[in-house]
Amino acid sequence: MTLAVLVFAAIVLPTMTMLIVSADARAWLRGTGSIRQTLSNAGVGVVFLLMQLLLRGVLIGAFAFVASLVPYELSSDSALSFVIAFVALDLVYYVQHRAEHAVPILWAIHAVHHQSQDYNLSVSFRVGALASLSTFCFHALLALAGVSVTLYAAVVTVHAILLFGLHARTRFTLGPGRFFNAPVFHRVHHGADAAYIDKNFGGVLLVFDRIFGTFAPYDREPTFGVAGDSPHMGPLSANVAPLRDLFDRARREPTIRGKLRVMLRPRR
């Protein structure tokens, strides 16, 4: 409780004060969109955080169980092991991200992140409530590769911090996207324009997009949001709407095979 009060006093209060007194700060925060969109992104983030509090311990325990089945383990004290685990995590992130855009049930969870019609740091908070469950299914591959719980906790924390910055409103890059991702390249990924859809899936690295042919350069400012979808501002409706639409389509199928096809067949 004391820690929460200190955090509130040290971070939240000064931030709120800055936003109240500074028009420039408010304009930067909301980007080209509305403060309503930014608040919606934050609200979705609160729902995700609550789900994290409920599921995180269980998922870490599940990861530890999978890791215990593997007879080998990367050293948790080696810098080389950290680099190997980090690159492996970023590859898993790329595979997961492509799957989330291809498999309908995964897209229904991930689409929440793409609903924002603006692009600023608040989009980093806009994560589907069930995202942790789908993430675990892919991160379990790291446990099978010999990544210990300790090493996993270290690399996933650093990885998440670096990913948070991808939604900044900046065009700064570390080169032309040969190796490292940057906000300007990830902005392409959030574009609803035909040329930008299903591009730039990479996390910290862009090499996998280069290797597998999913890289697209930033040519113009995209239109943000989910193509053909209406905006969902409420945190609950944002999470429920994609799943409801998917389940409605599955329910209309007369056979189990048809229902599974709707849920699992790759989107075109």
Protein architecture, described:
The chain is an all-alpha fold and 268 residues long. It has 2 domains: 1-30, no CATH class; 35-264, no CATH class. 62% of the residues lie in helices and 0% in strands. The chain has 11 helices and no strands. It has helices at residues 2-21, 23-30, 35-68, 79-102, 104-114, 131-144, 149-164, 183-189, 207-212, 235-251, 256-264. Helix 1 packs across helix 2, helix 3 runs parallel beside helix 6 (131-144) and helix 4 packs across helix 6. The protein starts with a helix and ends with a helix. The model is unreliable at 1-5 (pLDDT under 50).
Structural class: mainly alpha
Oligomerization status of the protein chains: single chain
Uncertain segments are 1-5
Please count the beta strands (DSSP E, at least 2 residues each): 0
Question: Overall mean pLDDT score?
Answer: 88
Mass-distribution shape: globular
**Percentage beta strand:** under 5%
- Specify the helix fraction band: 55-70%
End-to-end distance, in Å?
A: 49 Å
The largest sheet, given as strand count, sense and whether it forms a barrel, is:
none
Radius of gyration of CA atoms, rounded to a whole number: 19 Å
The total count of helices amounts to: 11
Number of domains: 2
Sketch the topology as an H/E string, one letter per element.
Answer: HHHHHHHHHHH
